[in-house]
Design goal:
Blueprint (H helix, E strand, L loop, with lengths): L4 E10 L3 E4 H7 L4 H8 L3 E4 L7 H16 L8 E5 L10 H9 L5 E5 L5 H14 L6 E8 L17 E11 L4 E9 L7 E3 L10 H5 L5 E3 L1 H22 L9 E4 L4 H10 L11 H4 L6 H9 L8 E8 L3 E8 L3
Parallel strand pairs: 4-5, 4-6, 11-12
Antiparallel strand pairs: 1-7, 2-3, 6-7, 8-13, 9-10, 12-13
Helix pairs in contact: 3-4, 7-8
The structure holds oxa(dethia)-CoA.
Amino acid sequence: MQKVHAAITAVGGYVPEYVLTNAELETMMDTTDEWIQSRTGIKERRILKGEGKGSSDMAVHAVNNLLEKKGLSPKDIEMVICATTTPDMQFPATANVICDKVGMTNAWGYDVNAACSGFIYALTIGSQFIETGRHKRVIVVGVDKMSSILNYEDRKTSIIFGDGAGCVLLEPNTDGYGLIDSILRTDGSGRVFLHQKAGGSVKPATIETVMNKEHFVYQEGQSVFKFAVKNMADVAAEIMERNNLTADNVNWLVPHQANKRIITATADRMNLPAEKVMVNIERFGNTTNGTLPLCLWEWENKLHKGDNLILAAFGGGFTWGSTYIRWAY
Ligand code: UT7
């Protein structure tokens, strides 16, 4: 019997309307458009405005976009996995909230927290439910409202992030298309370089933690950069090698959009020319779990059945990984 692969059969996406430009950041902190563009490749990012709006609200737009394009009813979906670092609240899971708001009443699901690698982790998890035959339609969401945990007085960190959501539909495929391989890694000792200091069980929120700005992203950028450059490139090269792929038969690199320089280093390691690399960091910045599905969403019309895609990500944890997908449509 032909092996069942989990194939991506539809993509949805959403970015909020508000555009936060480098010029506006110049008015908020001691920075320049020139510095941000040359060090990160970012020109602008989107920010979700409006009281009471959270990650689930962006995810709902993305999921509805996907269902509409695919002509599916919310009730057709059996499972939703939501990769996010900025859930609506500590509990319940944002996946549950998305199911409720979209009306996916036949679905169950949960959140995955692997920082910027969350979408690759969630994609791999979702694929298992398809490959085993347990489910026929699984939606994997990657979403973050990074603006909710950024200190806009911290010029080293806040300038790279933005808000956004993307999602994919996974369905079974027996013709050899879909998720072929994935490599996932973690090294928890890297947590010292990138984390949120308070608000968890170790250091619950108090007036002091708020006053000390301990609920924002803490990042030692240079250290993270060094690990990211090495590990994202290594893992992308490793997945190519073990699947006998070369620069000639890889059609697309879909890289996490943290810093243009990290993307370029990964592409160089794979010997891929720039025209095979999806890059939208200049418009969206680093949307954490949103970066990879937002790339697929924007490039969907350029993809062809049988294209070989390598997804690669690196993020807090540390977590990193790569996925090889043979595009199904
Ligand atoms: O997605 C999750 C994983 N995260 C990442 O992959 C992020 C990886 N790290 C990075 O992308 C980079 O480290 C950053 C973009 C965050 C920072 O860039 P950098 O080139 O590593 O800058 P730096 O922090 O080493 O700072 C270099 C200089 C410093 O000045 P001095 O001490 O040399 O005088 C900073 O104070 O640049 C200064 N600087 C800035 N200047 C203008 C730092 N941020 C800014 C800024 N505007 N926004």
